[in-house]
Give the backbone structure.
Amino acid sequence: LFPGNSFTYYGEEIGMTAPNPSGDANYRTPMVFDSDDMPKIYVQGAGDTFEPPTNGGVKQQLKDKDSLLNFYRKIIKAKLQNPEIQRGMVVSTPDMGDDTVGAFITEYDGKQVMVLHNFDAENSKQLTITDEMLKSPELVADLSTGKEKASLSGTELKLPAHCSVILRVKEA
C-alpha cells in the first residue's frame, strides 16, 4: 500500500515459493492454476517433485474469500480506487503512540488519504485520528484478515490485529 507501482512475482499471490532459491530460474516455475489437476512439472534443481501451495492453486483460492489470492486482489483494488496511494507522495508519518502501529499520509492532486497498519498479531488497537492527521476522516478500505473488522466512529478507530485500513477526508 505504499505509493508507486507494486511488483508481484507471479505465484506470490497464491503462496508459491521457489523449490530451490539458489537462482532466478527457480522462481520462474509454472503457475499453479488448479492444485487438484496438477500437470507433470519439471523444475530445474527440484526435479519432478514440485509441490503446489498448501492453500491450493488459483481455482481453489478464488473460491475462498479469505485466501491469500483474494487478499492480494483486495489490496490491489484498494490501491487502484485511491489514486493518492497509487500516484501520490508521502507527506506525513503520524506518530500513533504505539510501536506496533504504522501510519502514513499520501497526497495526490490536492487530496489525502491515511494508511494505517496494525502489526500486532494478537491485539486490536483503539486509536484517535486527530484533525492534524486527517480532518473528518471516513473509512474507505478495511483490509482485515480475520473475523474482526475495523470500525470508525467519529475520530475513534478500532484497528483489529494484523489489519490495514485506508482513511480519507470525508467529502461534504
